[in-house]
Design brief:
Structural class: alpha/beta
Number of strands: 25
CATH superfamily of the largest domain: Metallo-dependent phosphatases
Family: Belongs to the 5'-nucleotidase family.
GO molecular function: 5'-nucleotidase activity; nucleotide binding; UDP-sugar diphosphatase activity
Organism: Gracilibacillus salitolerans
CATH architecture of the largest domain: 4-Layer Sandwich
CATH class of the largest domain: Alpha Beta
Distance between the termini: 72 Å
Oligomer: single chain
Protein name: Bifunctional metallophosphatase/5'-nucleotidase
Helix content: 25-40%
Radius of gyration: 24 Å
Largest sheet: 7 strands, mixed
Strand content: 25-35%
GO cellular component, one term: outer membrane-bounded periplasmic space
Number of helices: 15
CATH topology of the largest domain: Purple Acid Phosphatase, chain A, domain 2
Number of domains: 2
Amino acid sequence: MIEHIHFYYCNDLHSHFDQWPNIVHYFNKKKKQHAQADEQSWRIDIGDHVDRFHPIAEAYNGKANVELLNDAGFDFATIGNNEGITLEHEHLYHLYDQANFQVSCGNLKPVNKEKPVWLQNSIKIQTKENLIIKLFGLTAPFNAFYHPLGWHVESPYDYLQREINVLKKDADILIFLSHLGFSEDQLIAERYPEIDIIIGGHTHHLLKNGEKIHNTLLTAAGKHGKYVGEVHIDWDHHLNKIVDKQAYTVETEHLSQDQETVNKLAQMNDAAQKLLKKPVTYIENSLIVDWFEQTPIIESLTNKLKDWTKADISMLNAGILLESIEEGYVTYGDIHRICPHPINPCTVKLRGIEILEVVRGAHDEALMHFELKGFGFRGKVLGKFIFSGIDIDTEVDEAGIEHVQHVTYNGHELEHDKIYTFATADMFTFGRMFPEIARSTTKEFYLPEFMRDLLADALKS
């Protein structure tokens, strides 16, 4: 006898709800089809469903996302870094209190506190034919961010080395819900053939027809709900093993919509806008935002960052502010709209010579016009880089290219070997935009504050 088992999933939605009604309609249709064929199916979220760039996620601290997953009939979930490090401790601790689905993230735990009741190491399900399927989730160990928020994330490899035999021991099928990224999934598939299927996320990779490494099937469905994924397993009860497993992704844009979900999202958005209308301050004159100019508002925010972190020097990009601010009352919704990024302030220790390299790199026209995707940035382009605490003399050559001539701190040239505290947005500690910042071994991240919290303070003063 062959038992047919089906899983449907989404990953890295990031609160992009445009296709969510399409996803719900498709999952409902598929569940009905499988039920008519007397087959079982389940729905899974692989993390980063929450992203506080969206007013709904911001106003409800992620709980509206959980309500949407409940309404959509999801069965299981794991946690992404957007749930883990963009919510304050208590908001994450109680995020899934009302979830109608089970949550597994085996390598996450609170510091000096009992685990929340919803947090499971693994989830066991038994099919109607008594097949045992075990699912377990792991998330990326960004402990430089988790620790200030009162959480610890164990290395996934330490966790697997200790737990893999226990996980597999009483399971016919073992499924890993991974918010680690594609390269990590590939490595884990190489090291742990006990895992039958890895459903992945985090790096927004799209595996349209899955990928097999030895006997492990890997799958992932991109980002922002543009695709959803499905996994189909055939188990032979006579041979007592999987005889076929397939993974596919489906583009969602042209699927039919679930009208109840359309209506629910509209209601949630209206309610969120009302919650975010709380006034923060009053300004007497409009503040212009220009991504390629040093305007008073970005200058004020850069100064605030330096003072708030007690740094010697600070740097921000003008593209971090998306819209100008009109005179009159400024609400939290305005500030969220203008600076929606889940980006935290941070400081690094840099030598003077390294700061000189950062300043020179910041004057690269190509970098200013770079359309950054990821690292928490939710804007269009990086824009002009603004500094506080130093004076920069530049010269424009015949080709119109600006060159840095002198950089002074308190009226004196930067000392090449002196250590300075340098404040910036945490996104510059990643990637290759500023190697000097990314390489620093003395990073300090300020959580749970976002850059928009500093913007609110700057506007008040």
